[in-house]
Amino acid sequence: MHRRLFKLILLLGLIMTAGNIFAQPFDLIIPGEDSPDTLSRELRSLQAIERDMAIEKLTREPTRLEAFLELGELRLSQGKLEEAQRFFEMALEIQPKNMQANQGMVMVHYHKGEFNLARNRMDVVHKFYPLSDQLKADLEKYRLHMQNQAQIGLTVREDDRGLLDIVSSIEGIFPSGEMKKLTGRYRYENWSHEDNNQRENTQVYSGTLEYRADSNTSLSATWAPEVFSGGDSISGYNLQLVAGTDNLKTALRGGKTTFKENLFTLRNRFAEDFKSFSLFGDLHQRTRAIQTITLADISDGNSRRRWDSELIHSIFKNAAPFLTANLRVYQASY
Q1: 130 DSSP assignment
Q2: pLDDT given for residue 297 in this prediction
Q3: Confidence (pTM)
Q4: How many CB atoms lie under 10 A from the CB of residue 84?
Q5: Distance CA 83, CA 76 (A)
Q6: Scanning 61, 254, 261, 328, which has the fewest C-beta atoms within 10 Å of its C-beta?
Q7: 43 lies in some domain
């Protein structure tokens, strides 16, 4: 049996993070995570300036300020944070607006896990040395990864058969202070499935542990039981590995979830064990294309194959997605 479906998904919600309000969908790989070329160009210009300054310093005796800065950088590279902080503070006593000393203090606080102090020091730096609008946007994005976040959202999805899913959610995101590559996520979702004036409600409680090796590689594990009206539940879970380059990435996923083909499969508590492979890349800074192949075994004894093609476009506010549209076309065979 073959079925072709067309989906237009509009995701709109509110996410609250330290006073900012924005929205981010739960199950989409959002475009706009990579640094744009503007940032690379400005960093190269800064490196050229630093090189010229270093050459100039070789021709004369160092000042007390320069000595404190050099000692602070040396102790920071050695991991001696208390000594590095002392030297940077001595440099700031001589020149409070010194960029290198303030940046050094930012890194000291960051490595000590004092993220609030690091953010406060960054604000001081930017007050003395204003950034371009593009760099401000990029900086705001990176700062979000350093702080706890609370997000609420609303997702509305409808396919060409008339099956309507409305999902409201709330999520907490907690980066680890000690192990900076680890992030914990806790999420609650309330699902409303509607078809031909009939409705079924479910609730999902999930916890995710994510390890991000670098900007292109991450590994995550999620436990996500789904509870039905009446108290029945399906113990969902999934593992995900993402790897690739700045321009093209792959994602491998596997796990167990509720089989939400229609109200019949929901009411009969069908589940599926699945494996999927995705290939995705950016067509534009805010537009991403994704191709996914999924193989699954359903609890009623059947199996299915599914090919998904998606386009995702996000409108950003405060360096985070505020409104996201997802266009999906898929073909499934059983």
Answers
A1: P
A2: 94
A3: 0.58
A4: 23
A5: 8
A6: 61
A7: no
Q: How far is CA 114 from CA 111, 176, 324, in A?
A: 8, 11, 33
CA dist 199 and 207 (Å) reads 27
Residues 187 and 247 reside in one and the same domain: yes
Q: Are residues 174 and 284 in the same domain?
A: yes
Q: Exposed/middle/buried for 272, CB within 10 Å: 0-12, 13-18, 19+?
A: buried
The answer for residues whose C-beta is within 8 angstroms of residue 24's C-beta and 6 or more apart is 13, 15, 30, 151, 153, 320, 321, 324
**The predicted structure's pLDDT at residue 334:** 84
Task: Using the 3D structure, point to which of 144, 172, 194 is the last residue of a domain.
Answer: 144
Contact 230, 268 (CB under 8 A): no
Q: Which amino acid is it at 315? A: I
pLDDT of residue 241: 93
pLDDT of residue 1: 43
Q: What is the CATH number of the domain that holds 230?
A: 2.40.160.40
What tokens were used for 302? 């059947």
Same domain, 130 and 18: no
Residue ranges making up the domain that contains 185: 2-34+147-333
Element (H, E) at 115: helix 115-128
Query: Which positions of the chain have pLDDT values less than 50?
Result: 1-36
